[in-house]
Amino acid sequence: MDNDWVVVYSTDKQYVAEMINSLLESANLNSVIMNKKDSSYNFGEFEILVQAANVDQARSIIETKE
């Protein structure tokens, strides 16, 4: 993955990450979920990343839905 991807949201719940990812994709923003959850000890988070050029738009969309 290129270095121009930025974390715009993180959560410890997979279903929330999936919902946010779908929300961003429905707004025609490319986004990915980075799973940083440890499966053995069940800690960590899911991070939503978008390209640096879309950070402000993505954060705005997320804030309106929270």
Summary tags:
about 25% strand; about 35% helix; single chain; alpha+beta; 3 strands
List the helices and strands and how they pair.
Elements: E1 5-11, H1 14-26, E2 31-35, E3 46-51, H2 55-65
Antiparallel strand pairs: 1-3, 2-3
Concise account of the structure shown:
The protein is an alpha+beta fold and 66 residues long.
Polypeptide structure, described:
This protein is of the alpha+beta class and 66 residues long. 36% of the residues lie in helices and 27% in strands. The protein has 2 helices and 3 strands, in the order βαββα. The protein has helices at 14-26, 55-65; strands spanning 5-11, 31-35, 46-51. A 3-stranded antiparallel beta sheet has the order 1-3-2, covered by helices on one side.
The overall pLDDT, averaged over residues, is 92
Distance between the termini: 28 Å
Largest sheet: 3 strands, antiparallel
What is the SS-derived class?
A: alpha+beta
SSE pattern: EHEEH
